[in-house]
Design a protein that fits this description.
The complex is a heterodimer of chains A (167) and B (589).
Chain A: E1 5-14, H1 19-29, E2 36-43, E3 48-57, H2 59-71, E4 75-80, E5 87-98, H3 102-113, E6 117-122, E7 125-132, H4 134-144, E8 149-154, E9 158-161
Chain B: E1 4-7, H1 8-18, E2 23-26, H2 33-40, E3 46-49, H3 53-67, E4 71-75, H4 79-93, E5 98-104, H5 120-124, E6 130-133, H6 137-152, E7 158-164, H7 165-169, E8 171-174, H8 178-182, H9 196-208, E9 212-216, H10 218-222, H11 225-238, E10 242-244, E11 259-262, H12 269-277, E12 280-284, H13 290-293, E13 304-309, E14 323-326, H14 329-343, H15 349-363, H16 379-390, E15 395-399, H17 403-411, E16 420-421, H18 432-442, E17 447-453, H19 454-459, H20 464-469, E18 475-480, H21 485-494, H22 510-516, E19 520-524, H23 530-539, E20 544-549, H24 577-582
Parallel strand pairs in B: 2-3, 2-4, 4-5, 5-7, 6-7, 9-10, 9-12, 10-11, 12-13, 13-14, 15-16, 15-17, 17-18, 18-20, 19-20
Antiparallel strand pairs in B: 1-8
Helix pairs in contact in B: 1-2, 1-6, 3-4, 3-18, 9-14, 11-14, 12-15, 16-17, 16-23
The chains are: A alpha+beta (167), B alpha/beta (589).
Chain lengths: 167, 589
């Protein structure tokens, strides 16, 4: 059973009441994984939202997830960004670090290496804003652990296919 | 038509009439009173007053399945809607087009735990094809038309429209729904035409098959009478055997010799062994349900598979197939026939004739044979007599769920589609009687028989009152063994006959029950009683309950024990499950 793959799937849906519940209910009801999920309106005029879901499963399960999503009435389009060519993925995180003295300096130094910005500061804390691939954020969080890591909030992955072609 | 202002309730009635709806099954309540007032004021839509909302949905299902049209349900908010949920889940599993209008508390009270408030769209989301909460009367017409389109197109299914009371009272301009009913949906566009390349590959594969088999299901029925006709034609020109699922019975004439009977857990020996041994499987409108496939790893191990389904999510869900074809069964079958006739492929006649010889050997096992008795009625005999005495009539059969359902599928021969209404996917006990009422409403002159078990019938027998009110001559043919027979059968097989809560205690006297409603009650106790009772039931122009007291110990065979494969069937009570599972010799006949 170890042919599990991780896939990032973009779903274009009607921005109507309950549409997110439909998608989430589908995943929980059929026992699929959600590793991360983001959603926001992307076309105000047409009333369309884009959901980006990172999921994992065997190739057969991934095909089912796509077919089941496509079966939902308000779903316009589905794109398996992992399977259909190259794509770029980004995630944003806000990370609170508490500390004084050397640890504080070290936190700032590492933030600089990771191109994280301090967006709030007190005498004994920082909030860093960092964006990038999820594993870059994981790495940053790991490094902050011994330096007074206090609180994390992450957006989940947003992704888009490379090249001129749109969804 | 001049533009005029109508209130929400009037718009609903107008839209339904324009969509061709003639019957609504429903039950009134506070939140839907405005609609009921409109129903009162008109006489084009017939309303059938049920006795419990669960019954209303099954009636609409029976109506829909026997006509191919949309079934419409109207219930109130809160408990009205929650009672309808089982029926909705049933219609979802069996792909039955049902539109269910539910009342809701007024928009400004939603979320306040108001009296008779339930989150209907939340509750029904996973058991409907789609659902709507209408918050503005201006959206009503569009969503109603859209809902009817969604329910009836593609793979059909139930759609709920939740209607807050203020929306039913508010007014807006309305100029007829006719145009809007023609417009599809902006994101939902079912594909009906199959990919020509895949169809060509399929035809090629079928023509080269040495041991082909058609395995067809409810999708053929849902695709309309046209699909059944084309299926017969394709089976005819290819010369391949065919088996049908529980949902597909009637899609191909049961009397034809190419028909091997139903397949699956209680399917025939020849159908299951032919599935196991085939080299090319042509699945049209079936979904590789676990009751059909048995053990997946041993399912038709040497076969290449073609799968035609209008729902892409049914393809490669349980079983990976070589040639997937997304499309409507009638359309794809038509394309296949056309291509076959153009190409006139040469088939391996010798291989086919050897295949039929093999099938004849399997058939010779007579897997449906049972021990006859002179003292006690065998359920199989009761159904054989029922078939013989009704086959020349315009007959529709519904069933409940359990042993009687499987015996009905095995022993009643369906030669036409839309004549067999049974709860296949969800397995809802209590389905058959209300479904029969819906069928009889749609076909007032036909003979409608609910083949029931006594335990299932008790689940929705409140609808007797409905049937009497509308003078429906529905026949309830109860195979009464004083047990939840299928539960008991599994307890015998797997739990050393510890009959935990599987007996029917404190049953009513069904004859007196019928009489108390002014209906006909009959009872058969001995095999000799069968014909007179069935004939009297058919002769009666009133609702009839026929209490057929059968052998309490009879079990349903053949059977593939769950988790076993098609070639590990139990053919009778003498077969031990362990024995069949271990002996490879069972494959050979």
């Amino acid at each position: 059973m170890d042919n599990t793959e991780k896939h990032t799937i973009a779903v274009l849906v009607d921005n109507e009441a309950g549409v997110l519940a439909r998608v989430i209910g589908l995943f929980s009801g059929r026992g699929y994984n959600i590793e991360s999920l983001t959603v926001a309106e992307v076309d105000v005029q047409e009333g369309l939202s884009r959901i980006c879901v990172v999921t994992s499963g065997t190739p057969m399960v991934i095909e089912q997830i796509k077919a089941q999503l496509d079966r939902l009435v308000p779903v316009h389009k589905i794109s398996d960004l992992t399977a259909e060519g190259e794509s770029v993925e980004r995630e944003l995180a806000l990370i609170k670090v508490k500390g004084k003295g050397n640890k504080r300096v070290e936190a700032l130094r590492i933030a600089d290496i990771f191109r994280a910005r301090a967006i709030d500061s007190t005498n004994n804390s920082f909030i860093f804003e960092i964006s990038g691939k999820p594993d870059k954020i994981d790495a940053f969080i790991n490094l902050m652990q011994p330096l007074g890591l206090n609180e994390i909030t992450r957006t989940g992955v947003v992704a888009i296919a490379r090249g001129p072609k749109g969804l | 038509m001049a533009k005029r202002k109508l209130n929400g309730s009037e718009i609903i009635i107008q839209c339904l009439i324009e969509a061709g709806v003639d019957t609504i099954f429903g039950y009134p309540g506070g939140a839907v009173l405005p609609i009921y007032d409109e129903i009162f004021k008109q006489n084009r839509l017939k309303h059938v007053l049920v006795r419990q909302e669960g019954g209303a949905v099954h009636m609409a299902e029976g109506y829909a399945r026997s006509t191919g049209k949309l079934g419409v349900v109207l219930v109130t908010s809160g408990p009205g809607a929650t009672n309808a949920v089982t029926g909705l889940a049933d219609a979802f599993m069996d792909s039955i087009p049902v539109l269910c209008l539910t009342g809701q508390v007024p928009t400004h009270l939603i979320g306040n735990d108001a009296f008779q408030e339930a989150d209907t769209t939340g509750i029904t989301r996973p058991c409907t094809k789609h659902n709507y909460l209408i918050k503005d009367v201006k959206e009503l017409e569009r969503y109603l038309c859209e809902a009817i389109f969604v329910a009836t197109s593609g793979r059909p299914g139930p759609v709920v429209i939740d209607l807050p009371k203020d929306v039913l009272i508010d007014e807006t301009r309305f100029d007829g729904a006719r145009e809007k009913l023609k417009i599809g949906h902006r994101s939902y566009k079912p594909r009906t035409k199959g990919d020509p390349k895949k169809i060509a590959e399929a035809v090629d594969l079928i023509s080269k098959a040495k041991r082909p088999i058609f395995y067809c299901g409810g999708g053929v029925i849902n695709s309309g009478v046209r699909a059944s006709k084309r299926l017969c034609e394709l089976v005819g020109i290819t010369g391949a055997p065919i088996t049908l699922t529980l949902m597909g019975l009637g899609a191909y004439p049961a009397n034809d010799e190419k028909f091997l009977g139903m397949l699956g857990m209680h399917g025939t020996y020849e159908a299951n062994l032919a599935m196991h041994g085939c080299d090319v499987m042509i699945n049209i409108g079936a979904r590789f349900d676990d009751r059909v496939t048995g053990l997946l790893s041993e399912f038709a191990p040497e076969s290449k598979k073609i799968h035609v389904d209008i729902d892409p999510s049914s393809i490669n869900k349980n079983v990976a197939v070589e040639i997937p074809i997304v499309g409507d069964c009638a359309s794809v079958l038509g394309d296949m026939i056309k291509l076959w006739r153009e190409k006139k492929p040469k088939q391996d006649k010798r291989a086919l004739s050897a295949w039929w010889k093999q099938i004849a050997k399997w058939r010779a096992r007579e897997c449906l044979k049972y021990n006859q008795s002179n003292d006690v009625i065998k359920p199989q005999l009761a159904l054989q007599r029922l078939y013989e005495l009704t086959k020349k009539r315009d007959t529709y059969i519904t069933t409940e769920v359990g042993q009687h359902q499987m015996w009905a599928a095995q022993f009643y021969k369906f030669n036409r589609p839309n004549r067999w209404m049974t709860s296949g996917g969800l397995g809802t006990m209590g389905y058959g009687f209300p479904a029969a009422i819906g069928v009889q409403i749609a076909h007032p002159r036909a003979t409608v028989i609910d083949i029931a078990g006594e335990a299932s019938f008790l689940m929705n027998m409140q609808e007797l009152s409905t049937a009497i009110q509308y003078r429906l001559p529905v026949n309830i043919f109860i195979l009464n063994n004083h047990y939840m027979g299928m539960v008991r059968q599994w307890q015998e097989l797997l739990y050393s006959s510890r009959y935990s809560e599987s007996y029917s205690e404190s049953l009513p006297d069904f004859v007196k029950l019928a009489e108390s409603y002014g209906a006909t009650g009959l009872r058969a106790l001995k095999p000799d009683d069968l014909d007179p009772v069935i004939n009297e039931m058919l002769a009666s122009d009133k609702l009839t309950i026929a209490d057929i007291v059968i052998d309490e110990t009879e079990n349903c065979f053949p059977m593939i024990p769950s988790g076993a494969s098609h070639n590990q069937m139990l053919l009778g009570p003498a077969d031990e499950p362990e024995k069949t599972v271990s002996e490879e010799g069972m494959v050979l006949v």
